């Protein structure tokens, strides 16, 4: 039996997209910290810059994903078409 796709109301689309963005940001920043920490311990003799670089890359990737998710919602698209 296929799962039913639930249509969200207009006022529920943006908070839903923001919730997904926050979860995605936490995952990407966390993986950046882990990857940077591993590189710092193994290759760079416990320097801080690989961890900082990992956090920055994770944040940038999360921001790009959030922009595309928020721009793809129907509410934003309708508001841009009105202007």
Automatic annotation (TrEMBL):
Alphabetically ordered keywords of this record: Membrane, Mitochondrion, Mitochondrion inner membrane, Transmembrane, Transmembrane helix
Chief localization: mitochondrion
Pfam families xref list: DUF543
CC annotations in GO: MICOS complex
Entry keyword Transmembrane: yes
UniProt subcellular location: Mitochondrion inner membrane
Keyword Phosphoprotein: no
Family: Belongs to the MICOS complex subunit Mic10 family.
Assembly notes: Component of the mitochondrial contact site and cristae organizing system (MICOS) complex.
PANTHER family, per database record: MICOS COMPLEX SUBUNIT MIC10 (PTHR21304)
Its biological purpose: Component of the MICOS complex, a large protein complex of the mitochondrial inner membrane that plays crucial roles in the maintenance of crista junctions, inner membrane architecture, and formation of contact sites to the outer membrane.
Name this protein carries in UniProt: MICOS complex subunit MIC10
Organism: Orchesella cincta
């Amino acid at each position: 039996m296929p799962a039913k796709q639930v249509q969200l109301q207009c006022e529920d689309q943006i908070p839903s997209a923001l919730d997904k963005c926050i979860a995605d940001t936490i995952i990407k920043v966390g993986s950046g910290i882990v990857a940077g920490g591993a590189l710092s311990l193994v290759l760079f003799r416990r320097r801080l810059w690989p961890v900082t670089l990992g956090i920055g890359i994770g944040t940038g990737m999360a921001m790009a994903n959030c922009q595309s998710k928020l721009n793809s919602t129907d509410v934003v698209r309708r508001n841009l078409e009105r202007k």
